[in-house]
Amino acid sequence: MQLGKLDLTSLAGKLMLNMLSAVAEMERDLIVNFMSPKKDSTGLPGTLEESIESLSGISLKDVKIHFNSDMPTELNGDSYTQAEDIHVSPRQEQHLTHKAEHCAE
Hints:
- The chain is of the alpha+beta class.
- It has one domain.
- 46% of the residues lie in helices and 14% in strands.
- The protein has helices spanning 11-35, 46-56, 71-74, 96-103; strands spanning 2-3, 6-7, 64-66, 79-82, 85-88.
- It has a 3-stranded mixed β-sheet.
- A hairpin with a 2-residue loop joins β4 and β5 (85-88).
């Protein structure tokens, strides 16, 4: 079985499948968490935080999310990450997983 030129039965292919599966699970959990958000929460949704921390080995407990932020629009973007702050424009929450990964870099 192939994905492009990558043999999915090889070690690299299996690693790629595991990574894609983990990302899909994080995205699903993110959607679930946005459907039932905690009141007054400005941190990462628990399952997203736990998933990225387990993959990166870096704590994300100090990450703050600024929803409905104007900053990304001022920079001609949908979302913006600076240090431990993630700024998300209205209705652009789908970018949160990617931006959280930047906090772990």
